[in-house]
Design brief:
Helix content is 50%, strand content 17%. The radius of gyration is 32 Å and the shape is elongated. α6 (134-158) crosses α14. With 498 residues, it is of the alpha+beta class.
Length: 498
């Protein structure tokens, strides 16, 4: 079963259960009256794949907040929102046009190429959204939706348009919010005042992006009383099935990769890139030490993947590794004997070498021994602050990079949760990206979006007596709606193809 099919099956099963419970409560005599009273009180409405609640309890709060603002300052605030929203309307049309062009002409039949050119991409849990980040995603959508609709409500209060109510909903698997404004009040005010209300939601989404980015950059200072940074990358979790699952535990601080020091999570990636930018280096070992081990010619070793060699017996596989010895001017040793099986932990040190000349500066009568491993395999020494020896990792860099979940924030006390900074950081990233995307999408001049009503008010403001105003708005709305629909269909097709 593909990830998309699995996600759809889970969501359909979830809504089937919810809808079945809803119907049972409606027809079950002992509970149906209480259930209908509860629906009435909470403004609940349930159908398959849709549920909403509607209330008037926040009307007074919106009115109080709107009236507390100085009228001139509030007008200036929402006028700025109109300017920003109109600019984003042009940006949204450009993005949709570019995205559609890249989808149609950016690839040459390859799914990977087409996906790389796709700007508009639906987010599907289990497909392109990890299940363990589902809570962050739902909370982000809820926050962005509430802030968006609160912007409309506050602008409506400032423009003396009555608020009928406020509600939350979930459609299929996407939560959101809505505000119910008095339509008669809204239609009689001037076009500029209408635009302040229509653009306020998008404007507040833009502000939310700025707040989220500000929090991202302020985290080290905001969390300073409870967390410290700069002392290594602390492990939050290890991916199941990875090579490090049994060697690392949450709370362990990684402080060094080979000779590269770790102070922050960013250093983890840069240190691994440094390892990958060079071929596997060797280690200096004295000839006296090597004389204790048997040396094997090439024909006594077994070839492995990507050019690696194996010269160790089965009972030494877990702790030993085959090393290559490069001889130069060593007449006392047969130059054909170039491989030996050594205990990796006793060989791997911070000092590295490429040739025997590198070792002569460190210790006389020593040789440079290099792990006889494949070109895409690396032997890496990872130092940490926990008790025990450093970790030796043998494998690919990409697997190592994505097998550990790290954080910069070290709890100052054992009672402080380890996961909180990472969770807040992820939430802020989601809010910044999704709130920005919702701002751009909502202001598209397409039917039923904020851009629809903003465009009509804008044309009425610019061309109050023009007989072709309605035709012009219909043409623009048709173009915007077509662009949006084509992009959505293209994105869904690519998501299914992937």
């Amino acid at each position: 079963m593909s990830p998309l099919t699995h996600t759809l099956a889970v969501v359909i099963a979830y809504w089937s259960v919810i809808f079945a419970i809803h119907k049972l409560l409606q027809i079950y005599d002992p509970l149906n009256l209480r259930y209908m009273q509860c629906q009435e009180r909470l403004g609940l409405r349930t159908t398959f794949a849709y549920m909403r609640c509607y209330t008037k309890i926040f009307n007074g709060s919106f009115k109080t907040c709107g009236l507390c603002c100085h009228r001139k300052i509030a007008r200036a605030w929402f006028n700025t929102g109109v300017i920003v929203a109109l600019f984003l309307m042009l940006v949204s049309l450009f993005i949709l046009s570019l995205s559609l062009y890249q989808s149609l002409f950016g690839g040459s039949g390859g799914g990977e190429k087409e996906r790389g050119g796709q700007i508009l991409t639906p987010i599907m849990p289990g497909v392109n959204l990890p299940w363990n980040q589902l809570a962050h995603y739902f909370l982000t959508l809820l926050i962005c939706g509430v802030v968006h609709e609160a912007g409309h409500a506050l602008a409506a209060v400032v423009e003396h348009v009555r608020i009928n109510g406020f509600g939350l909903f979930i459609l299929f698997l996407y939560p959101g919010a809505f505000v119910d404004l008095h339509s008669d009040h809204l239609t009689v005010i001037s076009p500029l005042r209408q635009m302040r209300i229509y653009c306020a939601g998008v404007w507040h989404n833009v502000i939310l992006v700025g707040v989220a980015v500000l929090f991202l950059y302020s985290f080290p200072y905001l969390l300073m009383p409870f967390y410290t940074t700069g002392h290594g990358a602390i492990v939050l979790g290890v991916v199941k099935g990875s090579a490090l699952e049994q060697k690392l535990s949450p709370g362990t601080s990684l402080i060094q990769v080979n000779a590269c020091p770790l102070s922050y999570v960013a250093d983890w990636g840069s240190c691994l890139e440094g390892v990958g930018s060079h071929s596997q280096k060797g280690y200096c070992v004295s000839e006296d030490f090597l004389s204790q081990y048997k040396l094997h010619p090439l024909n006594e070793t077994k070839e492995e993947e990507e050019g690696g060699r194996d010269c160790c017996s089965l009972d030494k596989k877990d702790s030993h590794l085959c090393f290559f010895l490069s001889f130069r001017k060593r007449n006392q040793v047969n130059p054909e004997n170039r491989f030996t099986c050594l205990r990796a932990r006793s060989i791997v040190t911070d000092g590295t070498c490429v040739t025997n000349d590198d070792c002569s500066a460190i210790q006389s009568n020593s040789l440079c021994v290099t792990p006889a491993i494949g070109s895409q395999t690396y032997l890496i020494k990872i130092r940490h602050t926990s008790l025990g020896d450093p970790i030796l990792y043998l494998g690919g860099l990409e697997q190592l990079k994505h097998s550990i979940i790290l954080s910069d924030y070290h709890p100052s006390h054992s009672s402080v949760p380890l996961w909180l900074p990472g969770s807040l950081h992820t939430l802020c990233i989601y809010i910044a990206s999704i709130s920005g995307a919702l701002a751009v999408l909502n202001i598209i001049p397409a039917y039923a979006l904020d851009g629809h009503w903003t465009l009509i008010a804008l044309l009425e403001y610019l061309m109050p007596e023009n007989a072709y105003r309605t035709k012009i708005s219909n043409v623009i709305l048709l173009i915007g709606s077509s662009l949006l629909l084509c992009n959505l269909l293209s994105a869904i097709w690519i998501l299914m193809y992937w």
